[in-house]
Amino acid sequence: MSSPLPDYYSILEISPTSTQQQIRDAYKKQALKSHPDRVPSDSPERSARTKKFQQINDAYYTLSDASRRRDYDTARSYHSYSSVPDDNDDDPAEEIPRPDPSSSSKGGFPWSAFGFGAKNAAEEETYSNEQFGGVFEEMLREEGMAEGQDARPTSKFWSVIGAVSGGAMGFIVANLPGALAGTVAGNRLGAVRDARGKSVYSVFQELPQGDKARLLSELAAKVFAHAVGS
Q: Which residue in 15, 18, 146, 163 is a FRET match for 171, CA 20 to 30 A apart?
């Protein structure tokens, strides 16, 4: 018995007529919202978040490519889904890929033909992280925290990392405990920063889990604020 076809539009909380830019924007929001690193590694939420994050990545992988999206829509047409309300009917800015009825084969379309096609959970997690890494670097470029083709960290990135890690100078208040705390944080970040030639996502992956969570939360707040203001 074949697995049911997942509703990737519902997973990303978008309409089936969404444009490619809307799909990308939705992916950013959902990936930041559900990223496993926003909770401690021993949190009971971790497993559910990891599964959700992989579904979001699978949805984006499928819908972000015109050919994969067209094939998915063909298969989806044979399943009953209640779609997200369509608010894009009057937007002619982008032609939306449509299923080609002549290419469909009713009933013989396994959903595993879409998405990453990973063989196991570990492989799927690797694919999810790789895909998220590219979009993560794009988001940091937009915020002025990465630059160049290889997404090198900027001074703004390091200042944000210093702040979320408690290593900013403002936390050192002329007393021994404060100075020691600042020194420890500074040394830890310095060790990460000395790894030359690494992208911001590579640096992010080397951060302590708590710092990852705070950075993701801060980035999510910026992305959501842009969405509200647009």
A: 146
